[in-house]
Specification:
2 copies of one chain form a homodimer. The longest helix of chain A is centred in the first third of the chain and has 17 residues. Chain A is elongated, with a radius of gyration of 25 Å. The first copy, chain A, has about 325 residues and is α/β, with parallel strands linked by helices. Chain A has 12 helices and 12 strands. The first copy, chain A, binds a DNA duplex (16 and 16 nucleotides) through helix 2 and helix 4.
DNA sequence: CTGAAAGCGCTAACAG
DNA sequence: CTGTTAGCGCTTTCAG
């Protein structure tokens, strides 16, 4: 199918390519009469602009990238929904990249972006990300980055986060009010600010109640290993009577462990989890959750990025936008 | 940042642009000596090819599109994972588009693809899709399409599906063996082959057991309305003792309805659902599921697409690849 | 208001 | 093996 080009329309109408181009761009330089003729011809001939020619010339791709650890996660899936809505509004296209929690993968992806493939980037860093050189390099090449959820605050850009410290503090306090005295916290990576904030909130609540029992676990990417870690919690004298999970995918594992070891929730163990998982209320027992405003985070992140793209001066400063989470208490923490 | 171009490398090395281009492409026409010099210079100067210039010239974008109804769905999220893995292997980029079950949105997206923005398309049609003109138009413009899950078999291309008829048949038979005699089936859209196949499997099983009770409901996109539809099931003499859900997002609603109306699962109602939802075993009660091989479907769909892209002759025929689902019986159907 | 010309950065014939 | 030439299809000065 020889697709229709500007040149063909120009020839058809005995106009110049430049005029046709401007007419289609609705330039003030072109008369209404000509615009109508061109528009009509374009429609009739089925003209569709070649985005690659246009991008090459304009040095803008009308495309943004979303870089996330994983898509099969209710939080990230909802964030993408929010991003997509805003991108659609601005006529932008959305490229998706997953790091699968690998720093080297993340570096390779960022390296590619130095080509100008995308106009901007929305990202949540991997668990392994303990350096930001690869991100800085892209920002230096004039491609703005907006972080969400898993942010790196040392870079001069906007971070969209939720109130992780406060949520963890409130969650821990709630468990304490339910008479838990040995509360464990399970995070994923000490390198992540989000994880540190939650851990700090947890510790601050313990301190406020002069509780000395502290038990911070790190669970990674290997389900078998994580199962062992979680199971070992209940095989010692050090066993907790409450637990806060910072990672959605550990829910299943914890429920499995408790099932296998006959640990009753909430009788022997009260549970609260950071998650966005819609069915939490129908688990057995119903799971208390700290719900992040995922869709909103996606929307605000995208809006922030487009604001940056609209600006000509690219002086960007470190800045945080905090959208509050909501805790829903259910039977698992009662 | 004035990014490095071929021209700059060429000037630096006193070579022609063409030679540099070929050297970087590892062309057999270029001597190893020159290749090394060029590669080294490119590395040192931080050269990264402009993908838009390259795509314009080569008429290949190295990009595929994934068009799905919704991303916040465990099935589609896993499919994307599979697609992404294969795309990564081939050095392709993945654009994501959501139709949100709207035909007009789907048409607008396909319209855009006539621009050659993507080399190929992987898609699952919307509930509303009762015409294929918009898809055919893209295929006619030489952009191959591979369908998965929600397919349109009338188009000459490959469809990756699972054994929906057999699964529904087996699920229904299982409920019958558990003494259900009034089994309802809840689907989403009569326009979708996938839905019709499941419905047919359901009906075939009923017929085989000479059961005359048949109750097919259609639930759409409006949760409130769907709640009403599901709730009304239990308020009449026609109320079922078994139910098969064809739609993941109805699980929550059904559990809610049963909770609100004090319908005991599985005592008064046995439930089986098509879903890929990882936590199904920890719901209350544990939910029997028909698990589609989502990740595999994504991989096979992508592999099929890349095979088509590799071919020069673009004669494509209607063809189905069937990957079997797996039924996991849990308490909800016992 | 319209058009001619130049060129974004790259690749592909084709000569040499 | 290397270079010259000619664009891909579009946008943008700049003249007229």
């Amino acid at each position: 199918m020889p697709s229709v080009t500007l040149k063909m329309i120009a020839k058809e109408l005995s106009l110049s390519v430049a005029t046709v181009s401007k007419a289609l761009a609705n330039s003030y330089e072109i008369s209404d009469a000509t615009k109508n003729i061109v528009l009509e011809a374009a429609r009739k001939m089925g003209y569709i602009a070649n985005p690659y020619a246009s991008s090459l010339r304009k040095r803008r791709s009308k495309t943004v990238a979303v870089v996330i650890p994983e898509i099969a996660d209710s939080f990230f899936a909802k964030v993408i929904n929010g991003i997509e809505e805003v991108a659609l509004f601005y006529g932008y296209h959305v490229l998706i990249y997953m790091t699968h929690e690998s720093l080297s993968r993340e570096q390779a992806i960022m390296q590619d972006f130095r080509s100008g493939r995308v106009d901007g980037i929305l990202m949540s860093v991997s668990e392994q990300t303990d350096t930001v050189d690869h991100i800085k390099a892209v920002m230096d090449s004039n491609t703005p980055v907006v972080f969400f959820d898993r942010v790196r605050e040392e870079l001069p850009t906007t971070c969209i986060v939720t109130n992780d410290f406060e949520s963890a503090f409130a969650a821990t306090s709630h468990l304490i009010s339910k008479n838990c005295r040995k509360i464990a916290f399970v995070g994923n990576s000490p390198a992540l600010a989000i994880n540190r904030n939650r851990e700090s909130g947890y510790k601050a609540a313990l301190k406020e109640h002069q509780i000395t029992y502290e038990n911070v676990l790190i669970c990674g990417n290997d389900p078998e290993n994580d199962y062992t870690i979680l199971a070992s919690l209940f095989r010692s004298d050090y066993r907790p009577d409450g637990i806060i999970l910072s990672v959605e995918k550990l829910i299943q594992l914890l429920y499995q462990v408790c099932h296998d070891l006959n640990v009753n929730i909430p009788g022997q163990l009260k549970v609260l989890t950071f998650t966005n998982f819609a069915m939490a209320g129908f688990l057995n027992p119903p799971l208390s959750t700290i719900n992040q405003p995922a869709y909103e985070i996606g929307k605000v992140a995208a809006q922030t990025l487009f604001k940056k793209l609209a600006r000509t001066n690219h002086i960007s400063e470190a800045e945080s936008i905090v959208l509050p989470s909501e805790i829903i208490f259910r039977e698992s923490s009662n």
